[in-house]
Amino acid sequence: MATPFELTEDGFELQWQTNYLAPFMLTNTLLPILESTAAGTSSRSRVRIVNVSAEAALAPGLPKELDLARPNLDYVSGTMAAWRRYGHSKIASTIHARALHNRLSRQGISAFSLHPGIIYTNLQAADTSIFPGVFLRYAVRWGIIPGVISPTDGARTTLFCATSPRAVENSGGYFMPIGKLDKRPDKWNNDDKLVGKLWDESERMLKEAGF
User: Fold this and answer.
1) pTM for this prediction
2) Rounded to the nearest 10 degrees, what angle do helices 22-39 and 192-208 cross at?
3) Catalytic residues
């Protein structure tokens, strides 16, 4: 989370590849298994794909749109640069779930994205800046930020999307703790052109990187 700018050996910004592009490739690799599993069951809720996104996709001051022309955001600077790249990768993760829903729901495969909550962990340790890095870590540790939850509670929304019969009714949706549908990402998810473009551009990026 909010790691310093770094390019992977594949030429992608670390957070873009770790948080979005690698899961996109993994999911595509697993699709034949998911599709055959869905075809072999009468249940319309057994096969699910869950993307763990983040509130950073929607936070004020962070990117409001995808930049698929320059997804590395190598032009971003300032104290919030690492968080802007993090949020950007999570926008993609959120839209990806809707793209999966659009492509796979007729086969009985559901897809979701979610914000697990602000969880009491050391996930914020990568940002070494005074602000927001050190400030945020101590704010979480000391409970200054309202709504900080335990790792156990932090898993509940993921489990809800993965197991609850009620979640399937909103396949393609974005959920907040605990298991609450949040329609704010609809500004992206209802844009079929954008959803399709993300998929096509992701495939292109992987192909050009030799995958």
Assistant:
1) 0.92
2) 110
3) 86, 90
